[in-house]
Amino acid sequence: MSKTTKTDKKAQYIEKRKTLIALSKAVRPLVECGEFDTVNEAIKEQYIEQYPEIEEFKTFNQWKQEGATVRKGEKAFLVWGQPRRAEQVPDGADEPEEYKYWPLCYLFADTQVYIPSEEKKQQPQPQQHEEPQPVNGDEI
Q1: pTM
Q2: Under 8 Å CB-to-CB from 140, ≥6 apart: which residues?
Q3: Residue 134: how many CA atoms within 13 Å on its side-chain side?
């Protein structure tokens, strides 16, 4: 199994951003006309239309806090993360300029996780019974 290099990961990240930008452009008219409050809400609704069995999205850590486990091999749904401030020095400038940057946020649907049922949590675990021992030298 080969390891991906740092440049491969960066290229994958850039490709994911391009995909999310295209999806954002497609749903922006729905936000502008007031059908959705945010681009992320519209994007989530697009995912739900594509996969109607989805009921909710959460981050990996949010599912983990609830005691759920993301199934191995599941791919995250992309939305925009909280904006961050960053600085960059433009070409030919001496001073850095501040700008907003929206990172990717990876969400998993309830259909992608194993959620331990409440019944299993509340039921007492069955006690292990020992094998019966022979009485008076009799064999079983």
Answers
A1: 0.70
A2: 132, 134
A3: 5
Question: How would you classify the pairing of strands 69-70 and 113-114?
Answer: antiparallel
Tokens of 14: 């850039």
CA distance 73 to 82: 26
Residues of the chain with pLDDT under 50: 1, 119-136, 138-140
Cβ atoms of residues 104 and 13 within 8 Å: yes
Closest of 111, 110, 47 to residue 79, by C-alpha: 47
- Provide the H-helix boundaries in 1-140: 6-32, 39-50, 60-65, 118-122
Q: Give how far Cα 131 sits from Cα of 7, 28, 128, Å.
A: 60, 67, 10
Give the pLDDT of residue 90.
77
CA angle 32, 45, 112 (to 5 degrees): 150
